[in-house]
Amino acid sequence: MPGLTTFPPFPENIPTHPLIVVDYHLIQAGKDGEISKLWKAATELGFWYLKNHGMDEDVEAMFDMGREAMVLPLDEKMKYELGDEGGSFGYKAAGVQAIDERGTRDTAEFWNVSKDDALAWPRVIHRAYPSPVQARMTSTIRPFVEKSLEINVALLDVFTQKLGLPRGALADLHRTEEESGCLARCIRAPPRAGPQEKLFIPAHTDYGSLTILHNRTGGLQVLPPSATEWYYVKPIPGLAICNIGDALNIFSGGILRSNIHRVVPPPGEQAALERWSVGFFTRPSDTAILRALSEDSALVAHAAARAPVGRFETGTNAKDWIARRVGGLRYNNYKDAEGWKGWKGTEDTEIPESVES
Predict the structure, then answer these.
(1) pLDDT digits (tens, 9 = 90+) for 99-124
(2) Where are the transmembrane segments (predicted)?
(3) Domain region containing 91
(4) d(Cα 354, Cα 332) in Å, to the nearest integer?
């Protein structure tokens, strides 16, 4: 599988959104200027590039793991399929999700490895995995998970400080030692089959707190606030793409932005290739209640008070929240257009009809 630098180049004539570039080394060093850049990105678009993350070798190894697991026979992979009950860990086959209100089936497949299983290996916390995943658990997956968690801790500490929360408040909701929906993922999507652009993942917001994505090609698109046009996010060698998820949006009373995005086939010559990506999805501890932390921060309290009543009081814990979202997009659970909309996380965000699909 070629690396990002050996793929056909991203087309120059494609509209892209210029994400803010945040230097992880400077965040670690507590540099005020870099912290301000991160805060601006996290509160305005909710997406940013992260450089100097030190994960390039770990990411390459994760792609290798994904390739080894993807080439297993389908009947073997299906032994580890997520199922229709909202499970997050294992194999997601192509065609098992609905990608639009008409119930169109998706075409992407991916492997999800639980943070808990990776860190506890060889002890099983959630589920077993096939031999190619097991063989890489110690050498590849665990280092990738640990370094992703390290980055998340640093970013959460910045958000805690900027939100005026007590020290460690967000970290306490994302304790590594507690079971959660955190996972490492490798995704493969097929080449574009025809002239029509077909969604791989429809317009949505992420379920959890933070996402760190490493792309091989283009295809990720964002819808900036008040925009009526989708913009690609250009993959750049060595830069991860980070974004805020719904959980941090809720904890912050809406201050941290969980922005709408989708995934389509790569543009230009890249469309003739399979689309690969690797990501780490940080989610709160299973027992964490998703609600605004208004009692701990005057800033959060003020923001939450301006929202519709109940907007940031979900009455559910992270485990149930994620299970609803994951299970809701399964094709076997598809009932109608209104029911399908519930999985996307955009219940409180109006998407202009011109960019809905």
Answers:
(1) 888 888 999 999 999 999 999 999 99
(2) none
(3) 21-341
(4) 28
